Amino acid sequence: MSLNSLLCAEVPLRNCSLTHILLPFTFVLAPTSEYSCVIGRHQKRLSEIIQPDFGLVHQLLSRDVITYRDHEEVRAGESIYSRTDRLLHRLSSAALTSSQYHELLSALDYTRQTHVANFIRGNGGSSFFALC
Length: 132
What we know:
Layout: H1 3-7, E1 8-12, E2 20-24, H2 34-41, H3 43-49, H4 56-62, H5 68-75, H6 80-93, H7 98-110, H8 114-121
Antiparallel strand pairs: 1-2
Helix pairs in contact: 2-6, 4-5, 5-6, 7-8
């Protein structure tokens, strides 16, 4: 089996003179964890309430939650919205360990964003911890 056949699927078409069309697929295998899923599941709401500036990104770097490269890419965002989106994207697509998850919550508390930490701890207001 060739790489091309792995990346394309034949789809039968109805009511069309063509019988098949090849659709390219892109597979992105991103490591995730149950902790990253919590961030990803509530990313839209978190983007409205989290404040990446005023020390949070630096705290996450110093606590080994994000890498130096992540730190610089987040800081490179031109607006508060792009920095927030970049940070949340990194947190939701990384495979956060239990330790990193708890360090994230501690960093939020340290930077006076306890309301955000409580939102995450409460799984966005859900009474249970659902996995992705």
